[in-house]
Amino acid sequence: MKPVLVILAAGIGSRYGGLKQIEPVGPLDEAIIDYSVFDAIKAGFGKIFFVVRDEMHESFNAFIGNKYSHKIEIEFAVQEDPANINSNRKKPWGTGHAVLSASELIDTPFAVINADDFYGREAFEQAELFLTSEKREIGAYAMIGYPLGMTLSDHGSVSRGHCEVNENGYLTGIIELGEIWKEGKLIIYKNGQNSKKVLMPDSLVSMNFWCFMPDVFSHFRSQFGYFLEDHSNSNSEEFLIPHMINKLVHAGQVTVKILEAPGPWFGITYKEDKPGVEIVLKELVESNIYPSPLWK
Hints:
eleven-stranded mixed beta sheet; 13 strands; two-stranded antiparallel sheet; 296 residues
């Protein structure tokens, strides 16, 4: 059975200032998400779930249209406020809750990616190989890791899941660092109120490309319940995949194999990132790595 791809597209794009998930960046106005779907199909994925907010569903559906319908099955899952627990909250509850929004629709191995990140075809091939392996086990997951230096913006700070990995290539810890930026030739993380810490460019980070088995949903449900006990009245705290995985790894409940991607990786965090993304995609098309038009 072919694995499923879950694309997280419900973010509000606060740093970007708009719906960057469908921002046209390709030679014929393709979005990054189009290239991810293209690569996923080439790698052998059999179905795509887009997780969106209710208010963006119509716009997103109009953008997708029928461009993929002859290539792969498409479904939508809507990320909503759980049981209207906080009617004042405008911000989605985070990537962990976004995945949980699709839990009733998925009973096969699946991968998770961000809508606005370009991961490279080899990342999808590695994910598909892991998810279709005959050695799949309950609680045995994987993550595509990228060198931190590859994933930064020239135009402001970014958030990254900073990984600790053992000698066997398994995740031993992951911490979401919320403010990382370039300062000359250094990579700086704001560690605490006024202190700064230098990070190494070859340290591995998560860009939210995860490979899960369906049993992960029970962990998502229980961990999200604990999260709401502390943060149900918050308008900003998020239930993030790295936070949940970090707790499960430290508790010995799951294993996460790190699959290192050769790249390229690029994404859109700020408006100023868009021209650079357009240039790289144009080069990939001119190198015949992608056709233009992308969908025929």
